[in-house]
Amino acid sequence: MILDGKVKQFGLLFVLFGAFGNVVGNHQIVGTDPVFAEPIPNTTVTAGRNVSLPCIVDNLQNYRVAWIHTNKYTLLTLQNRVITRSSRYKVSHSSHRTWWLHISNVQERDRGEYMCQINTIPMMTQTGYLEVVVPPYLNEELTSSDMDVREGSDVSLRCMAKGSPEPEVTWRREDGQEISVGKSKVTSLKGSFLNITKVSRLHMGAYLCIASNGVAPALSKRILLGVSFTPMIWIPNQLVGAPVATDILLQCNLESHPRSVTYWIREGGIMVLTNLKYKTEVQPTVLYKVQLKLYIYNLEPEDYGSYTCVAKNSLGETEGTIRLYEIPPPTSNVNEKGDDIFNSKSEKLRNGHQKNSYKKHEEKDYSPHDPADQNSKFQPREEFSQILKSKGEHATSMCSATFQIQSLSSMMSLVLIYLYWKNISNIS
After folding, report:
1. How much is the mean pLDDT over the chain?
2. Residues of the signal sequence (predicted)?
3. CA of 9: how far to CAs of 41, 89, 240, in Å?
């Protein structure tokens, strides 16, 4: 009833604009009323785009056409003129038959029923509905941003999306891993809130809040969740062996957030610095894990001992120790009894260190002017080879002499047998 009253008010206003006297005269003369040729189609448009609504009238004669937004009780256009103050509305016609209402940059408030009216008596009207859909958008004030929380605390991530129709919100992890919620794990979770109790470092990562309502484009926001905890170091190999004059890599695995300050120290608290002898390296693996690496080049006896990797952040510090010890080189000499001989350059191993299970060999004092010493790390090996060679030559000569004696003995036996048979023959 209220709407009818408002429409009647618009009809009265329409009469004032439409020179009612002339219209009545035309109606009496012609005797034929205008006719709506087609209904106004219901139209759906995305906010921000343009739309045109048609009103098709046959036999309009001298009557006038008006467009009205019935939900707002607003007269928009009258014949060729735009009545509303909004510059987004325009009107046009095609041979006074099709009357177009043009709305540019459609807003959500433009949704509603639109009436095409002809100022006949009684008035002729028809309506069409304009549906305005809105892609999802976020209420930034109520939506979570990147955050850091302490391990073991509770956390709630919020994603407040709006749009028309009402958007549906889905949570996923950016890395594709499952989301741990209580005792269960899920690949995705629906709802505006993502609640995690007793958060751990395993929850750390980027979470995607995806809002969709069937209107393109869908919305996605990335929220980075950081979980703070004291550093933790674990060492794959706490005992590492390597021969003298080789290169070695020592490694510690570190977990920490926020990021830790790291360094290496030797026995006695001496900090290891990168130079020609040492090289330190920090290699990230995942979000809160890194590998601490220490390269030691051209090992010398004094390089053996303990090395400690240290990590510190705002919540605490930790360390891990690796012991580097000497082992035999990959190849060794063999004496005449078949025993291995290890020629160590380390005083620890030469003096009976428990790690050395190899027999000792007296080293020869090679001077720096000896040409052979310039190209060999273990010169006693060459000396031992010479000993084996001389022993081999001696053994060969002994075998030759034995063979000669055996041959001479055989010949003498043959001569004695010949003389014996000859004497027997003479006696007979």
Report:
1. 81
2. none
3. 25, 22, 96
